[in-house]
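Hi P.,

Sorry for the delay on this. The queue was packed all week, but I finally got your sequence through. Input first:
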Amino acid sequence: MIVNQKYDQAMIFTIEKNMTLEEIQQGFRTLFPFLNIAFFSQMHEKGHGTSVKYRINDPHLTLASLSEVATQADAGVSVHPTSRVIDFELAFQRTFGIGIQVLRKSRMAWLEITKTDDWTLDKQNRKARDENETPLEMSVMM
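Then the structure:
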């Protein structure tokens, strides 16, 4: 994958198998403050969400402790601002054998990204930033 030259190395985050879910979320949110990642024991198809009953909620677990596939992973997954959401989710699932869902902040809630998972992570983050910086009164009128 070719990374747009306007992004420097500080804008790339690599996820490794020995990282905890909390460390992954913190690193991801450093790059994308208006996005988050949820982890699941089941994977999902493009354009679909994942049932909350499969959500992994213990932030102290490592990827390697959750999946045999993750223990065998030789490399990590790099997170680039120019990566499409679906490509990032699929790369993560293939590499670690764990389902993830990228979430976008929308006021007081986190929304699963399903309809726009062909957008880049950067575009999703900018969309959420713009939505969250608009005063609530104005957003109701739009």
